[in-house]
Prior knowledge:
Largest sheet: 6 strands, parallel
Order of helices and strands: EHEEEEHEHEHEHEHHEEHEHEEHH
Helix content: 25-40%
Strand order of the largest sheet: 5-2-1-6-7-8
Structural class: alpha/beta
Radius of gyration: 19 Å
Mean pLDDT: 90
Oligomer: single chain
Number of helices: 11
Amino acid sequence: MWGGARIGVVGATGAVGTVTIDLLAAHGFSDVRLFASTRSAGRRLGETVVEEATPEALSRGDIDLFLFSVGTGASRELVPHAAASGAIVIDKSSAYRLQDGIPLVVPEVNAARAFGNGPIIANPNCCTIPLTCVLKPLHEEAGLVRVRVATYQSVSGAGAQAMDRLARESAGEHDLRMDWEFDGEEFDEESKLRAETRKIMELPLLPLQASCVRVPVMVGHAEVVWIETEAELSPARARALLAAAPSIRLEEFPTPGRATGIDEVLVGRIRSDPTVERGLALMLASDNLRKGAALNAIQIAELVLSGATPTTAQIGRAAVALAPGV
């Protein structure tokens, strides 16, 4: 499908990297090289040997597009070398998301931003992606006044080691965790969710309050969202808008378990919020390793490699058509 596009996956042995490899194959990418840290270099994933991700290896100019799934520090060190080679770089860390001049892209929301801004494109936070997919059609219809969101994020968002730790724990050891950096007022996950949503939606003054916790769930993030709108928006109309939106599936009661392994964002419990004049409340759930990370990056790759901005409806249809097992 994508001809001779040469793809490099950096962080190939991590939780998101392994999902990225599977999705690349499902989406028709056949020329894929794998890179990881010194510790993982030399491992074989399928028939491919993992190479060490060094500045020299990433700057040779023999890769057309890199998908980075590493920590912020590693991205800051390695992404400039990959970009200097002439490749497009899609980075899933927080290193470049809020940097001026670097686009932060959710294809269903702001696909055009993927073009004409240089070689680096940032992939948003795993809760920001599904949230903006849901907010976009509601904002276009009625205008957002205020957003409040509580997120319940699975341990896979903290990486493979956190998943291993949860697998070893007894049920009695499971607990809510807040394992993000605390700046004295809030957790960085909450500030990232606010700032990234504003940038993607191009609403720099949008009032958005977030509360984020880590929960003892292996895969799948859930969010409870309260919105206020400028114009009246009934629950029935909101359901109709979301049913027609790309990459969204209506579900009576979205849960991480139902979202795991699928590429769509599940949305449900859409109801009026009687505490404000024009308010709605809803729930969403998504697979944070797929649409929350790997799939979104691959959709960006498909955009830039195609050279043309598709409609959001085309993006949604393609995601469903190419999703394995759906």
